[in-house]
Amino acid sequence: MGRMTGGPSTRPTHRLKADGSLVWPDGYPASAIEALPGDHYAAGELVEAERALLAGVDRKRAAMRATVMTRGEGQSYAYSQKAAEVRDYHMLGGTIAAALSVEQCTARFPFAAAEAVATGEAIADVIAGFESGMAASQQCIATVEAVAVQAKRDIRAATTIATKQAAADAAPWPA
After folding, report:
1. Which helix (H) or strand (E) is 33 found in, with range?
2. What is the CB neighbour count within 10 angstroms for residue 169?
3. DSSP class of 31
4. Which domain holds residue 157?
5. Is the domain of 79 the same as that of 33?
6. Contacts with 26 (C-beta within 8 Å, 6 or more apart), sequence order
7. Are 31 and 42 in contact (CB under 8 A)?
8. For 3-48, what is each residue's pLDDT tens digit?
9. Residues 47 and 32 grouped into a single domain
């Protein structure tokens, strides 16, 4: 059996008895070589399959997150500032916040104040909108994270390529 091109194996099928070098049997006397065990490449293939499946989980997680999070320069800053304004508004209390002057409100809640001016909504309604959006995003991202963590655990725990693939395929990603 010689080197196969385009066939099922592009890997050496034998090794030299003298030093263990992997070779194709062509050109070697039978006394100098021995056939590789059938599972010679299995451990490496299992590791590679696991690596690829784990990377696939990471790509899926990133894609799922991207459906809820707006990408762009400074977007995470805007989200964190809006979250801080929601927390500050609740710590301050709606009654006290409603009593703030326009200048105080603009200084304390710049994102909410800017949106209130743009939409004509009250600060309380803008804050409620921020909070609603945050809660929905947070729930979706938490679900995606939980699925990814469990899928990775299941892939790592599986002992064959087929069961690792089955574990990856069984991950219950949200629709």
Report:
1. strand 33-35
2. 9
3. G
4. 42-169
5. no
6. 2, 3
7. no
8. 334 445 678 888 888 888 888 898 899 898 998 888 888 888 999 9
9. no
